[in-house]
Amino acid sequence: MEAYDPDEMIAEARRQRRLVERMTASLDEAAFAAAPAPGGWSVGQCLEHLALINQVYLDAIEDAAQRGQGGPHGRGRRRKRRHGWLGNAFVRSLEPPVRLKGRAFAATVPQGRSRDQVLSAFFAAQDRLVLAIEAARGLDFARVRMSSPFFRLLRLSLGQAFGAVLAHNRRHIRQAEDVLERKV
User: Fold this and answer.
1) Measuring CA to CA, which residue among 2, 9, 117 is closest to residue 61?
2) Reduced to 3 states, what is the DSSP secondary structure of residue 156?
3) Which of 15, 27, 35, 38 is paired with 138 by a 20 to 30 Å CA distance?
4) Contact predicate 1/9, CB 8 Å
5) How far apart are CA 69 and CA 177, in angstroms?
């Protein structure tokens, strides 16, 4: 999704929400919290991690979009700006299947919240993501830039930041699906 089209990103965010709704509809609290193996994350932990990390990313995205609204780089169409190759590579690295595993940042480690708390937080983050994309629609997604909230030296375009959230969601939703497939 290197074009970072707002309509496609909104459709993907909504698709992810529906997928999680279907995946978790029949899960009781025990199944939601059951880890596949020692050290492995349960469906609930995967989704809680996404809810936590997406809040941090969305705070940074909304700040960048706000700056872009008032700055000279947000809407300008002078010279076509491209999304940087490093940011595109970062977004691709978040896609499933997992090629490189990393440790979750302390602020994004699941705390074992209840099914209802996790799903409420995840769905709220997805709704906020859609609203943020809509609010930024008039901005130049390649020209507005921000630092990653976790890797300050990594500069992302606004489109790449939205793409990173969606790719990271796909990664951990796939992980949650794998947990459920192993239990069948």
Assistant:
1) 9
2) strand
3) 15
4) yes
5) 38
Other Cβ atoms within 10 Å of 83 Cβ, number:
21
Give tens-digit pLDDT for 9-19.
999 999 999 99
Q: Is 49 helix (H, G, I), strand (E, B) or coil?
A: helix
Query: What are the residues facing 146 on neighbouring strands?
Result: 156
CA atoms within 13 A on the CB side of 103: 3
46-50, 88-92, 164-168: which has the minimum mean pLDDT?
A: 88-92
Q: Scanning the structure block, which residue is given the tokens 């970072």?
A: 4
Taking a C-beta distance cutoff of 8 angstroms, is the pair 57, 165 a contact?
Answer: yes
Residue 108 main-chain phi, psi, to 5 deg: -115, 10
Q: What are phi and psi of 156, to 5 degrees?
A: -120, 145
* Contact present, 9 and 133 (Cβ < 8 Å): yes
Asked if 161 contacts 141 with a C-beta cutoff of 8 angstroms, the reply is no
Cα separation, 56 vs 95, in Å, equals 19
| pTM (two decimals) | 0.90
Q: Which two tokens stand for residue 156?
A: 């992302």
